[in-house]
Design goal:
5 strands, 2 domains, two-stranded antiparallel sheet
């Protein structure tokens, strides 16, 4: 039964492996270049420094990512776990659409064993491919995580890609057993996957745990490695600064190296000089990773269980 499952799913598995190989060809050479740049330009020394020289070093380091940095920022890589999940649901959906499950059930293998083999192979392959993907992207982002913190590319690292890929697989299976049309099921499942990811990333994630609020005596508060949800000029009590725009020009002064900076005492005299920040501290990163992985993974398991029940209950 394992050999049969592999033969039926080998095309999708090879496609997923080819996608991983393509990403590796793109990211591995660039990742080596960025790691070398990080070491050779002593970027680590400037992580906690706010001097102008270090600002220049950090800025040049950010530019070293080139087009791949833009690829991360655009969010297109968020689609990869979804593509992997829906693609690896195809063999089972084709069996349902073509009715070949009835032939399989007339053989010596039982329905439960047949279904367990098909689902086990699909889930195992999804987890394996997602694991390779997250290893590649986490390795590539390692120097950036040391500079900007791990929150910047939360969706691409460590354990959450497992939940995303399983969620896409579960959606495709659950919708497929209802529609019995593979192509339509894949399109609908992928669309729901995209909507679900956008909803969690843009609205739900920041509400997993109540964020921390703080009013800091600085126009550029140092919240290294934190996920800053919002920040705005404020007074000492943390209320938004509603003074006239000319205050910023009035309180600007030329620093030691010719750069304009805001005089904090002048800003305080005009009712500002503080920044009110709402953020999630770096220490909560793994807690959020666990919550989001459990959310998507839990929904995925429910969807897969529903699909299994529908298949076993069918004639």
């Amino acid at each position: 039964m394992t050999w049969l499952s592999w033969r039926q799913q080998r095309t999708e598995t090879i496609v997923a492996a080819a996608l991983l190989a393509l990403l590796a060809v793109v990211f591995v050479p660039e990742g080596i270049h960025i790691a070398d740049y990080f070491v050779s330009h002593h970027v680590a020394r400037c992580v906690d420094s706010q001097t102008q020289a270090c600002s220049l070093v950090i800025g040049n380091f950010a530019l070293s990512a080139g087009t791949l940095g833009a690829l991360f920022d655009s969010g297109w890589l968020n689609l990869v776990p979804g593509l992997i999940g829906v693609a690896l649901a195809v063999p089972l959906l084709l069996d349902l659409e073509n009715g070949t499950i009835r032939l399989a059930w007339t053989q010596s293998v039982t329905r439960r064993r047949w279904l367990a083999s098909k689902l086990g192979f699909a889930v195992g392959t999804v987890l394996l491919v997602a694991g390779c993907l997250t290893l590649l992207l986490t390795w590539y982002q390692r120097p950036f995580a040391q500079v900007y913190g791990r929150w910047d590319h939360f969706d691409f690292e460590w354990i959450v890609p497992f939940g995303y890929a399983l969620f896409a697989l579960g959606l495709a299976l659950a919708i497929g057993v209802l529609l019995r049309r593979s192509a339509a099921a894949l399109v609908v499942a992928f669309g729901i996957y995209v909507v679900g990811r956008i909803f969690v990333e843009s609205w739900l994630r920041k509400r997993f745990i109540a964020p921390v609020s703080a009013t800091l005596r600085s126009q550029n508060p140092n919240l290294h490695n934190a996920w800053v949800i919002s920040e705005q000029p404020s007074n000492r009590a943390g209320h938004p600064f509603n003074g006239t725009p000319g205050v910023f020009q009035h309180c600007a002064k030329v620093g030691a190296k010719g750069f304009k900076i805001l005089d904090p005492r002048c800003m305080e005299r005009h009712g500002a000089g503080f920044t009110h920040v709402v953020y999630q501290p770096a220490s909560r990163f793994w807690e959020f990773q666990g919550i989001e992985t459990a959310l998507f993974g839990g929904v995925a398991l429910l969807l897969i269980a529903f699909a299994a029940w529908r298949v076993l209950a069918s004639d």
